[in-house]
Amino acid sequence: MAQSRQRSERRPASGRNQNVERGNGGELHQLAEGETPVLTTALGTPVSDDQNTLKIGERGPSLIEDSHFRDKIFHFDHERIPERVVHARGYGAHGYFETYESLAKYTRADIFQRAGEKTPVFVRFSTVAGNKGSFDLARDVRGFAVKLYTKEGNWDLVGNNIPVFFIQDAIKFPDLIHAAKQEPDRDFPQAQTAHDNFWDFISLMPESMHMIMWIMSDRAIPRSFRFMQGFGVHTFRFVSADDESTFVKFIWKPKLGMQSVVWNEAVKINGADPDFHRRDLWEAIQSGNFPEWELTVQLFDQDFADSFDFDVLDATKIIPEEILKPIPVGRLVLDRMPDNFFAETEQVAFMTQNVPPGIDFSNDPLLQGRNFSYLDTQLKRLGSPNFTHLPINAPKCPFAHFQQDGHMAMRNPVGRANYEPNSWGMGPREDPQRGYRSFADAEQGQKVRLRAESFADHYSQARLFFNSQTPPEQRHIVMALTFELSKVQTPAIRERMVSHLLNIDEALAATVADKLGIRKMPSPADAAVPPRDDLEPSPALSIINNGPESFGGRKVGVLVSDGVDAALFEQLRTAVEKEGAVMEVVAAKVGGVDAADGTQIEARHMIDGGPSVLFDAVVLMLSEPGAELLAKEAAAKDFVSDAFAHCKFIGFTSGAEALLAKAGVDADADEGLIRLESNKTAEKFVQACRKLRLWAREAAVKL
Ligand code: HDE
Predict the structure, then answer these.
(1) So what's the pLDDT on residue 26?
(2) How many domains, in total, are found in the chain?
């Protein structure tokens, strides 16, 4: 009887030899054209059979001598490392930073000395509360961590997409994060703050109120990493060659303008595409549409800092841009995805304490605590003090030190000397001129555990933020607060929150209280300092006020049916692409449709897999019979009614009216519904889309 030994077909040769390991000599075994590399163990032993373990007889017990199996399964069993305790879900990309002009007047940082200097960077965006496998469109802060591989060491600017933070002192961080993440007895909810523990803690921490306004705003549900700002949050210092210090706040501004989604959309995106933000960044970079941000700095001195009644060391405060204009100093371009997610995005280790000469810290107690914390977290996650040997973490400039040994040491000092000073004339020496010099601030005082009086105002800037929003944005804050607090089951916590809101804006508090069904208005929370009502609104804080000038970088979803006008389809494609936007086709079948002239139009999505929440604007390019057929499909009706409810621009051909009607949308409802007939209307449609949303519709749809 023939042996029934199952083997796989040998893979066809790919012509790529990237899976061939280097041999001892460091050389690659060169593969002949068409040759398939031989599978080996981790130690290079060629493998004869990767389908069956070694057994005694076909049906007998497995043998422990099967070292190939042991090698393979051992390694698999150890693939996971602990996920980050916060910011577990992240996505990164490589790129460069280009300096505009020399900032030598303010800082000796090498990266800011020469106009046109390009510095390699790695950026990791993240959500904060959710686990590694959670969905992208959680209502959450986004991490915006930038590692700049400068010629004088790595500079990690570990920021967020929101310029303030929940707490003023690092000692409260474990409490904040415990309260925000899943409740420990039940391990839910995942990636959301809409639960009792979070709001219990927040309502007991008035210092968090400014941040609460931000996370209840649309900033916490960005449309894409590409359309969000980034902030260093803390006040840092620039230090010049003459050891003069200037305070600095760092702000990244997206070239494509800001954009967010609406909450109802976020909820649906999380079901339709939990990887929405990752996919967006991947697709943009892979297609050569490299996202770009401008780095701006707010520079000021001690006298300017003293002119405020808040403290620039308090991370719950901003300096409004209208009071101190951010100066553009360079641009960040992301142009390459990692080759391997784990090796780069997962193993990258950001640490706020990584600053090159010329950049220094302020006494912000949150920053000081962070400088202490990040090293521990990297050791815990990456398992060895040699995590700096990993290529993603290693500096790209020359470096020389006497650190040695430890788990997984890839590099050790060479030669006899592994200490300094030494008499052998070997190895590196310190350099007081070139080396890092901390700013010599005069510090003196008693040891105390105290919060400065200058940190006491918790409401004025929360009010400033709310007052700086446009009416739709204010509505979204009301709705977010109502939604989140409606998930809180303890009435006292809901009421405590309303008592804080009363110190921010009475109408806001009253509307939220009404929507929550709170019958008796609580009294305002005690405020350590009376909230100011004379702060000028800051238009820079609104997303809608700072949207894009073009529809570039955005995506149009075009729902097509058999029998459409191929010429119109092409005109639309041309207009969309001319704008720098992308068009994706949705159809009843993923195989696509036949246009009236017989041309085939391929689809990217079938209708159930391509809901309108995935697009910034939609077009219904349908023949009459096509629209009749689609009108019977729930997914097609949702495509239209959601696009309408989310205030998107909707282009449509006359044939599409049956579907609009079935979806409950009046074709003449407002100017966001645009009839497409000719070249000119395709362009008109794309121009209208530059506004991104027709917010005027929102009151009518009452989402
Ligand atoms: Fe972090 N934070 N953080 N954080 N943080 C971490 O470090 C911490 C804070 C931020 O993509 C951890 O590598 C403390 C503010 C980002 O890998 C950990 C405090 C801001 C990332 C840590 C803060 C941030 C982290 C977890 C209070 C905005 C992701 C894993 C004093 C300016 C970096 C890790 C990445 C990550 C500690 C507060 C931003 C535990 C103690 C404020 C973007 O070290």
Answers:
(1) 47
(2) 3
Domain range for 684: 553-701
Is residue 29 located within the same domain as residue 151?
no
Residue-wise pLDDT for 611-644, tens only, equals 999 999 999 999 999 999 999 999 999 999 999 9
pLDDT of residue 678: 75
On whether both 52 and 152 belong to a single domain, the answer is no
Q: Which residue of 81, 84, 85, 86 sits with most ligand 1 atoms within 8 Å of its CB, as the best mutation to test the pocket?
A: 86
For the record, the structure tokens of 581 come out as: 């936007």
**Tokens encoding 195:** 């639960």
**For residue 376, which atom of ligand 1 is closest to its CA?**
44
112 within some domain: yes
Q: Are residues 647 and 592 in the same domain?
A: yes
Q: Residue 294 falls within a domain, yes or no?
A: yes
Compute the distance between CA of residue 80 and CA of residue 683 in angstroms, rounded to an integer.
Answer: 50
On whether both 166 and 247 belong to a single domain, the answer is yes
State the Cα–Cα distance between residues 353 and 126, nearest whole angstrom. 20
> Catalytic residue positions?
87, 160
pTM value is 0.96
What's the complex ipTM?
0.96
Name the phi and psi angles at 144, rounded to 5: -140, 80
Binding site annotation covers 475?
A: no
The reply to whether 278 sits in an annotated binding site is no
Ligand 1 centroid to Cα of residue 388, in Å, is: 18
- Please indicate, yes or no, whether residues 313 and 352 belong to a single structural domain of this protein: yes
Q: Name beta bridge partners: 92.
A: 124
Task: Indicate the pLDDT class of residue 651, thresholds 50, 70 and 90.
Answer: very high
- Tens digit of each residue's pLDDT (9 = 90 or more) over 310-357: 999 999 999 999 999 999 999 999 999 999 999 999 999 999 999 999
Q: Which residue, judged by its Cα, is nearest atom 42 of ligand 1?
A: 165
> CA 583, CA 618: separation in Å to the nearest integer?
9
Q: Answer whether residue 113 is part of any domain.
A: yes
Q: Ligand 1 centroid to 187 CA: how many Å?
A: 22
At position 282, the amino acid (one-letter code) is W
Q: How far is the CA of 86 from the centre of ligand 1 (A)?
A: 7
Q: Last residue of some domain: 79, 102, 120? A: 79
Q: What is the pLDDT of residue 555?
A: 98
Report whether 173 belongs to an annotated binding site: yes
Based on its alpha-carbon atoms, the radius of gyration of the chain, rounded to whole angstroms, reads: 29
Nearest CA to ligand 1 atom 29: 87
